[in-house]
Each structure stands twice: as structure tokens, then as C-alpha cells.
Design brief:
This protein has 385 residues and is α/β, with parallel strands linked by helices. The chain has 15 helices and 14 strands. Helix 12 crosses helix 15. 42% of the residues are buried.
Amino acid sequence: MNIVADAHIWEVEEAFSTLPGFDVSLNVLEAAGITRKALQDADVLITRSSTQVNEDLLAGTPVRFAATATIGDDHYDKKWLRENGINFANAAGSSTGSVIEYMLTALLELHARGLIALPDITLGIIGAGRIGGRLADICDKLGIRTLLNDPPRARSEGESGFAELGELLSGADILSLHTPLKRNGEDQTYHLLNAERLSRFQGRGIINTSRGTCLDNAALPNWLDGDKRRFAVLDCWENEPAISSTLLAHPGLAIATPHIAGHSLDGKAANTLFVRQALCRWLNVAEEWRMEELLPEASQLINIPCTGDVWRNLHAAATMMYNIGNDDAALRSADLVPEQDIGRKFASFRRHYPMRRSWNQIPVHFLRPDPSTQQLARAIGIKVV
């Protein structure tokens, strides 16, 4: 069996060089090297989000299984793949925890800077799937009010518990995007937050950790300019990796990161595992790979001195586990290079992203804690010891 795989998939050679009952030939390539010519003998293709998997790439090749080691799969032409009998899979759900940790860290950072006052905000969650739904559950435990907008779920489950997008525009303090990218149709999400909807948004903040093109990046600076209290947190951008230098330099951009919300080591490991499991199901072979054996030992204990402010305590713990400011500073340094090089820097930041462990792998001990600190820490997934 001939497999072509992206070189930047976590432990790609360990995961895909052997399969029970098959003589595997694995060809590991940079994304730019994954071309139709490179796939002339390939049975299986495994990619990341930088590779468009469609007729242009696969027509005339023997590929019969394609998978992306990412949560989203909008870079796959699923209609064409189905019509041509090519099985496909993604790693949906694999890095949900990492994105949730990013979101919570961002909210705590915004609170620490005085941009919001937790828990007294209303968070409008657009897209209540794996990530958005879980975020809503955690917010409920924290005492943060949420408004959920998810038209497909509202149609299938009933409207109770869901709100129209207009309600979020008028009633939420912060909008947080958690939708897939859909360019047309009833539930189109391309430029879901466009100039017209932004003009109706009465809140102060926008967070995007879903798809860059769900938020009109050209319209965002104008919205930010409308009130100096407004802010945005962007992990996903339009036209990645060639992101807008104007937006990156905007003073209203509170946190800017290079599409790494789901990039914890444990999340990337789960991406690989999910794809290998999908491949084994397609081949109808037993799964024998032990991902956990390749992960480093759990991190050392972190001690957090407590103050009388529970949110400051949680922010201190979150920052010790994941310092979002470091990622923000790294991306903003791209603003210092010529504009034509921003895309290269963005891609380099993602490719060489430092190791970050999931919170459940990092033991945290609060020194002289109050009960609320420990209770809320556990509620957001911190491993309190």
C-alpha cells in the first residue's frame, strides 16, 4: 500500500509506516510537494489544511482514501470525492479541548487587561457543535450567560435553547465564532459576520477560532474604529497565511495568534490518532498503534499563590500552562517584516510551534486557595492537586 502524507503531521512516520497485514510504502512530503504527479502511485493521501483535495489534485490518480489531520475539512471537495468513490475522513473532535483551553485563556486574559469583567458578560456563541456546545457548558459553570446560535441544530432539535443571529447581535457583549465554512446554501457561513451585520452588533468584542472567512476581515477594522472600547481576538484569518497587515497592526486587535488554538501537543497527537483509526476502519484492520507511548511524561507540578480574586487566580494558572501573550507577540513580530513576507512568517510560526500540553496533563496546586478558586478551576478543566 502506497501512502503519501504531509510531513508536518505529528509522528507521521510512526503512525503510518506500518499497518497490520499490509506492506506499506510511505512517502512524506511538504505540502507544496503534494501534487497530482506525486500521487500517481498513491492509494492513500493524508494531508493538513494547506492542501486542497479536489479534482485538480486527484483526477487520474489511484487514491481511494483521503484524510485530513485537522478538525475541519472545508479544503476537501467532498461532493467530488463521493461522486468518484473516494473515501475521506477528518479528525473532527480531536483537538476540541485545545480550542476550549485557548478560548478560556483568552477570556481570562481579556479580564486581566480590564477589557471585560468576568463573569458579568453575555457570550454569543455562533455554532454550538462540539466546541461551541462544550464552551457553553463551561460558561454555565462559570456563571457566564450565553446565547447560542446554531440554525441546523435548532431545526433538528427544536428552537428552545437557541437564538436567532439577530438576538446575538443585539444582546451579546462578545461574539465567538465556532462554525464550519460553508460558502453557499441555507446555512452559509462565508462572511457570516459581514459589514452589514457588524454594523448591527451592539457588543464590544469578537473572537474567531473557527474559519477565517466566516468573519469579513476587510470590514473588521472599520467596525473596530467605531468605538475605542471594541476589540477582537483572532486565531483564524482570511487569506492565510498571507493575512492582512492592516488588521494585524490595528490597535483594537487585542490578541492575535497564527491559527494555533488547536495546536496543543495532545491535540495534534489526537489528530494523528483519529486519522489512523479512520484508515484502519476503511481497511477493516485492527488498530494496534499506541499514541500515548510517544507522548512525553506529564509536566511538573505548578504552584499558584492565591489572592482574594478568583479570576486573577485562574488567570495566573492559565498563563502558567499556556501563555497566550507569547503567541500574540510572535505573530505581531511579523508586522516588522516586509508585507510580502508576512505569509511566510505566519506559516513558519505554525510549522515550528513550541510544545504546549493540554491542561489535563499539567498538575496545578493552588497555595492557600479559597473554595471558589478550586471549584471553578476544576470546572474549566484544570488538573487541581
